[in-house]
């Protein structure tokens, strides 16, 4: 686990990389949002295979990121089964992550917290 204060945790469904969207499955992962700035560590969004995993599958540095709710322009990349669900997008300089929350409230919490850490309001 990375150092930093845990801001938010929970299950989200994440997309594969954009080049592999058609061929690979969307996976349910345990996400942890950490704010490390006060301790000199980076602000990160980590995801794990499950809630009890010790090592993250990936650590996403939120140094330069944006976050927004799913829009019609994202429709081509989001699986049909998730279209009317609670989809939001985290965009870094390296990759765009399409994430699905269980409820509208959970999605709003994630978007708000990531926006605060990234020093952005939700992007248009």
How much helical structure, as a percent, in the residues? Answer: 10-25%
- How many separate helices? 1
Tell me the distance between the termini. 32 Å
Taking Cα atoms only, what radius of gyration do you get, to the nearest Å? 14 Å
What's the mean pLDDT score? 81
Estimate the strand proportion. 35-45%
Order of helices and strands: EEEEEEEH
Strand order of the largest sheet: 4-3-2-1-7-6-5
Strand elements, count = 7
Major pleated sheet: 7 strands, antiparallel
Poorly predicted sequence stretches spanning 5 or more consecutive residues:
120-124
- Gross morphology is globular
Alpha-beta content class: mainly beta
Domain PH: 5-119
Protein name: GAB3 protein
Family: Belongs to the GAB family.
InterPro entries: Gab1-4-like (IPR046355), PH-like_dom_sf (IPR011993), PH_domain (IPR001849)
Keywords:
single chain; mainly beta; 7-stranded antiparallel sheet; 124 residues; disordered C terminus; globular
Report on the architecture of this protein.
This is GAB3 protein. Residues 5-119 form the PH domain. Belongs to the GAB family. It holds the Pfam family PH. A seven-stranded antiparallel β-sheet has the order 4-3-2-1-7-6-5. The protein is globular. The protein has 124 residues and is mainly beta. The N and C termini lie far apart (32 Å). The chain is built from one helix and seven strands. It has one helix spanning 104-117; strands spanning 5-14, 27-35, 44-48, 58-61, 65-69, 86-92, 96-101.
